[in-house]
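Consider this one:
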Amino acid sequence: MDKMTALSAFAALSQPTRLDVFRLLIKAGDVGMSAGDISQSLDVRQNTMSANLSILNRAGLIRNAREGRSIRYYANMDGMRGLLAFLMEDCCGGRPELCQPVINELACAC
């Protein structure tokens, strides 16, 4: 991931509702959620949610798939991994063993 893409992701996550959406979709996992369910879960109007979902999608943090007349949203784990890799790219000044506790903390136990 390059600096501009990382900045776009950080900008997308810097708004409270979008951060809540991203965390909700991470929690939903492979099942994902419909836009309506996301709006209802976070008590946000659907038109406002649509704008927030669009920003997260452009930032590469979420993805969507059409299901008939509705759209299901998922956390884009590749986008999240790319962002985390960007942050840790030069971790620990060439001593990767110092980064291992952080990596262990980030590893999903699921």
